[in-house]
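Supplementary Methods S3. Complex input for the zinc ion-bound model.
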Amino acid sequence: MTPGSADRSVRVTGHCRACGAELVETFCDLGLTPLANSYVKPEHAARPEPFYPLHAWVCTQCWLVQLEEFEPPEAIFSEYAYFSSYSDSWVDHARRYVDMVCQRFELGPHTQVVEIASNDGYLLQFFQRRGIPVLGVEPAANIAQEAVRKGIPTLVRFFGADTARRMVADGQAADWIVANNVLAHVPNINDFVAGWKILLRPGGTITAEFAWLVELVRRRAFDTVYHEHFSYLSMTFLREFLPRHGLRVFDVETLPTHGGSLRIYVCHADDPRPELPAVEELWRYEQQLGVATPQYYRHFDRAVVEVKMQLLEFLIRARREGRRVAGYGAPAKGNTLLNYCGIHTEFVEFTVDRNPHKQGCFLPGSRIPIYPPEHILETRPDYVLILPWNIAEEVMDQMAAIRTWGGQFVIPIPTVEIRA
Ligand SMILES: [Zn+2]
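Predicted complex, serialized as structure tokens:
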């Protein structure tokens, strides 16, 4: 190591969750934070919270960006507070997806659809309305109950090879598997994808959506790094990884969701369908950017510090001028941002969220209280900091009334932006 350079190579702390190689290259180190989804109930406000290192690494063998595992997934996901149905744009995204694939792939009553991490049934309901048989698999019992209440059959289980074998034995093999925003959230990505291989019938298709590493880097979206999000995925990684499990990508699309996502279409490796040109094109694009080189990852840590300084500069100035700042939203990513930046109620008095399960609780770590959205209209803050910046347009529509008292919106990432 040369004097003065960042220490990136000497600390060997773990092994790649995909290929087992030693992890020696830092992607970003966000210090210590609580689990991003551990919202604090008021009766627990006097209790301490555990903080864990939030350090992302990149594997220089397979290029999977990842966190180290430190908590059993049961501790993270069994009582999850995220109900997909509370986001209009996300439900609309699901409806458009179902319309598109039903037409393109001629899905119908003969197609068994299984969604992994089916949440509250927000997506499967659209297949069901078309008379297509559906089954959800969802580990969070409170959320699965909500799906069952709406008439969406749901297994309360973690997905992996064991679950897939049991499902096949029970006659629940799938022609169509949907796995949105889950591939990145499973600690054992090998076992999870082995489950895909087992559950998928010959000729079947898997579609998976996940935040794309390239957009995370481009948008400096370090706040999408949190403990429940173990892997940060690229085509460079997946094109090598899936064939090791007897699967392959045959098509891919880029999506604007979650600040830039990929939707991959996966089939059995021996499926006769050809690989479409989009796969090679996207892979080549990543190679040109350098996704398979350590240099690509080495600027990110500094970009993260820059975002923190900008946001703190804005907040300090606003508070010195006597302005009041409220948050909008209580997403996991907001908790990474607030805790990494050291922002508490002295800067952001409160936040609001449409999800009644979060209202009345405090954000983990920062202990910023969460109210219903009307609280903004009642208290008329000067600035509303939009924590789910990926749906900033939707939030600005919903909260357009703040303009009546001269309130302004603040978007924190990739650079602090004030919007009247
Ligand atoms: Zn690896």
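Residues 1-12 have pLDDT under 50 and may be disordered. Residues 16, 18-19, 21, 59, 61-62, 64 surround zinc ion (CB under 6 Å).
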